[in-house]
Give the backbone structure.
Amino acid sequence: MKKLVTFRPVLATLCALPFAVHAQGGQPEGPAQPSQPSMASTPSSPSTPSVPQSALWQGTPSQAPGIPYPSGLYYPNAAFAPAGTQASTVTEEEVGPALRFRVLAGMEHESNVTRVATGGKSDTASYLGVGLAADRHFGLQRVRADLEANAYRYHNDSSLDYNIFNYAAAWDWSLTPRFHGTLGANQQQYREVQLDPVTLTNQVGRRTESEELLQGVYEIGAAWRVTGDVSHTHSHSSLANSWNGNPDLTNGRVGVGYEFGSGASVYGRYRHGSGSYGDNAAGGGDFHEDETDMVLKWPATGKTSFDARLGHLRREHDTNKQRDFSGAVGSAVVNWAVTGKTSIAGGVSRDLNGTGDIVGGRVTSDRVFIGPLWRATPLVAVNLRYDHVHRAWEDIPSGSFNAGRDETANVLSAAVEWQPLRWMSVSGYVRGERQTSNANTGYHNTTVGAAVKAFF
């Protein structure tokens, strides 16, 4: 099997170089401001997608296993998703100064910690976390980094203990006012629930998804843009027989776009990728992907923004052609600032993946989410969030283990955060999870927790 080369160490080194250079001369900029709907690009500020703030406020330090908050949904076409928004109560608005450390601690109780259909056991976990956020400008360059490590320790069953390390780093480079781009890397770790094909019961493991990206944009006149990028994505699960085969993929992408004076933009892109599977159950041989898509960004009003992507994906394999699949993919996110204190974000997405099984087929994942946020006072914020995820195993030969498999997950969470001091906040949260399945993967769980965090 062909071994794909990762350039993660190179990216990490290059993204760190500007910090070292900046430390020797120049002073830090002022505090970073929350992302706003982007305007047409300027030489010192390349255009970036708008970021729904309600979508970033996730409220619960841990995520529902197997139902991560995908950064690609909240940051359409973006190269940087703060690690603190992936697995903690930290929001992008709290990044603060150009360099800031954070620590967090808390406890949470789970009614069904092993996520099994019957006979589940409850347990309480204590967790600690440390993080670092940096955002610096010098000349036409900007460097951003956000890292967070969390350790979860259960009181009754230490075999359930786990650690996660999420990071994001990006160098927004600019060689000339018209030629600029991003060099970035990110990693997201989270728990996942997977059906054991032997015992026919759920197992809880840890999944790691990472990406490295080099992206360039050339401005042709005031509005037209030509884009290109190379990237590497990798998935890994601590459990055997991963549901998608743990693909490892190297991509090249080209595109052309138009930026309107209103801040709206539309891009057409084509991507070709070559990859292989890390899980032996998926079968040997390499595969190739071709994807075309359109990306739209539209600040409809001063209070409402819309980001969308619609495309078509095709994956073809060198051997065992029954694993080939194709279909529509995409996502859309709407952010609405209802009042000065209330905002709502909602979105939908569709993704396609291989089944991780040599018999072939595909997994279609559809997701709907909505998340209102209410800032009751300058010191108190309340948020709700609902996620509905449906996954279907399709085009699988009858008689195979996953033939006709269909499962749906519903997650509802609520959180309250209070900031009694400028450098400290306290939060409480509750999350209900319900998964139904025709393959014995259904379960119910309720998580209740509290956390305190401090910034330095």
